[in-house]
Each structure stands twice: as C-alpha cells, then as structure tokens.
Amino acid sequence: MNRIAIPIPLLLAALAACTPRPVVAPAPAPMPAPAPAEPAQPPRVAPVGTLTGAAPGEVGMEAGLPARLDSLANAAIANHAASGIAIAVGRWGRLVHLRGYGAIDWAPGSPPVTDSTLFDMASVTKVVATTTLAAMLEEQGRLDLDQRVSWYLPGLSDTTKQRITLRQILTHRGGFEAFAPLYREFRGREQYLAQIGARPLKYAPGTATVYSDWDLVLAGLVVERVAGQPLDRLAAERIFAPLGMRDTRFRPDPALRPRIAMTEVDSARGHIWGEVHDPNAWALGGVAGHAGLFSSARDMAIFAQMLLNGGEYGGARILRASTVARWTAAEFARSSRALGWDTPSPNSSAGRFFSPRSFGHTGYTGTSIWVDPERGLFVVILTNRVDPTSENNRHVALRRAVADAVQGAIVDAPLVDWEARAR
Which residues are bridge partners to 97 per DSSP? Predict the structure, then answer.
C-alpha cells in the first residue's frame, strides 16, 4: 500500500481549517463609576428660632384653615359663647393664624379684640408661670420633686400633710379638696397657708387624682420661698422678658384697660375689668400660683413655640429640652396629669386628634393652650366666656371644634382619632 506523504505544515493548516474556533466570551463592560452621593436634602420646613408668618400650605396644612377658624369664632360670638375671642395656630415654627374676633365686652362701642388683647388666663397661670419657674429651679438643683412640701413650707405642720411631696401637688395627688371660698374670710399668703394646713384632706395623698387650686397655690409659695422673690417678679425677669412676651403680666396697670377683656359681673366687686377674676387669687393680692396672669394670643404663641423648640426661643434658653419632655409627660397610667400640665383625655378641650404626647391646660375664664410635639403644632384659644356670668359654658364646644379643625387641616400626616382609641 503506497503511502502519500503530506508535508507537516500543510497538515497543520488543514486541521486548523476543519476545527471550529472556540467561542470567546465578550469582555465584561466596565462598571460605571459610582454616581457622586447626592447632598443631604434640607428638611421640608427649615427650623426657625422665632415664629415667622406663613401660609398654611407652607407647613402641610389646608389653605382654607383660616377661613374655617374665622367661621367658628364668629359663630361662637353670635351664639354668645364670649364677647371676644383670640386664636393663634402655629406649625413647625410658622404662625399660620393669629387673629382677634369680637370685642372686649358686650357693650356697644367696646374696643375690638386683637392679637395683643390681654385676657385673664386663670388656671393657665399654673403652667405658664408657676410650673415653668418650678422646672427652672429643679434644673438648678434647688427643688427636689420628691421632697416633702413641708420641708419648704414649715407652716404646713399638720402630721398627715407633712408627708405630701412636691411631685404630688404638681400632679394633683396631694389629697386636697378641689376648692374652698377662703376669700370670704381670709387675705394674704400667711392666712391662706394656715387655712390650707388646717382644713382636712379629702383623700390619702398619692391614692387619687383630684384637680385642686390648693396644689398650685402651695407650689407657688414653694417657688417664692426657694427663690426669695415674689412670683410675679420671678416670672417677669426669668420668663417673660427673655422671651419677649411684652403683654404678659400679673396685676396689669389700669391704663391698659382698653386692651383687657372684661370678665364676670360680681355682686361684691362689680364688673371685673383688669383685675384677676379668681376670687382666691384676688384675696392673695392678684398674684398666686394658680391664677392671676394676664396674657395675649401673640405672647402665648411665643410661649408655646418655646416649648416646641425644647425650651428655647429667639436665642433665650428657658429650660433644657429634656426638662420640657419630662415635665410635660403624663406621670401615671390612670391619670392624664403631668407635672403641672395636663395631657389629652376623653372629652377634653384637646379634641379628638391631638396625639397622646400632647400637653396643655385650660383656664376657668375660657382660655386654653395645647401643644402637639409629634406634629410641631400648637393651638391657643383665649376667650372671656365668663362675661357677664360664669354659668355660660358655650366655649366648651368651641375649644374642641377649633382643635379638631386645626388637626384636620394637616395634609402631610395621617389623621388619627386618638380620643376614640383611648375609650
């Protein structure tokens, strides 16, 4: 068999022609360079040190809110809830509503109510003046909330009352009766302290919660004793002046009467105008831990924003943020009471939608303040509902309607009926 000799180079070339080429995977595309990190977005509403005016839409609220509040206030006046009303609403440091309605009295020709009309704040005095000063003294280490009140006020000498603590009176758990007309017989701090010490307790201290003016009368006396100054001077120097609350004061000068809302017609005192309405505060000289303060919607807006700012406003620090948080939180599971302050409860003036972390207070004359830290919100309503008689309770519905209208106007957060959940 003859063999055919094939040169090696030709054989290799033929084999190469018949062998399939290997599949070569395409080179991976180079990874794109990471995009530069986007700068942190500023908050939707930049914080401010002092209140600035803004339209509701700038802070996530419906544009129609002011018209709704106008309607509620004017309807309340038409229904004789009060001759005069002032409302302040703020959110995230923006003042979205500040307006007065009606007049300082029902008499024709009475001066109109403005944002600077002075109202008798009644029990709102408890939180704006007395509670704030007590919190300041606690920060300084000069007050111990769990110390006995009698340690600060030796005049409280009754054996049972000697065990009452400052925390108990600030949360209305001191055992005292709700009210007594001491003003009919007694005058001044020494006589009142003696009478509070002599009257029997209504329940064992710490076992119940009964709202009582005597608790804050005593707290005011403690503040004065520890600080060594009268309550009105302390509040003016340490709270109102630093914050720029130009209208707020005890015992307003009679020259300010055209700016002061009138209150009740009293059989002994006549038509009360420019003097404290509360008779026990009047018997204490117009300056007391539970009542006596006069203020305006403008000033109360400043005070509320200070609390939302964590105790600071316009560069003036009044309290630490931790102190504000601690003093405004409910102290006990079965009570709405915080230290001096109140928190929402069923059928309260906070309405249905203020969050459980909210806090506020009301006054007998028809005043109220509510602050909701979760929504950066405050609502101030001032009225003289006791003019001419304290039997008028039409302001109660107004408070809840305003609170609900304001909360319902928020469009950037869910609306939760917290009152229904609490039932």
Answer: 89
Q: How far apart are alpha carbons 84 and 105 in whole angstroms?
A: 7
CATH number, position 121: 3.40.710.10
CB atoms within 10 A of CB 174: 27
CA distance 231 to 12: 112
Considering the domain boundaries, does residue 16 fall inside one? no
Task: Report the candidate in 106, 125, 89 with the shortest Cα–Cα distance to residue 364.
Answer: 125
> Half-sphere exposure of 70 toward its Cβ, with a 13 Å CA cutoff?
6
Calculate Rg over the CA atoms of the chain. 32
Q: What is the pLDDT of residues 371-413, one digit of tens each?
A: 999 999 999 999 999 999 999 999 999 999 999 999 999 999 9
Number of folded domains that form the chain: 1
Task: Please report whether residue 310 resides in a domain.
Answer: yes
Cβ atoms of residues 372 and 355 within 8 Å: yes
As a three-state string, the secondary structure of 100-168 is EEEECCCCCCCCECCCCCEEECHHHHHHHHHHHHHHHHHHCCCCCCCCEHHHHCCCCCCCCHHHCEHHH
β-sheet bridge partners, residue 200:
none
Which residue range forms the structural domain that includes residue 362? 52-422
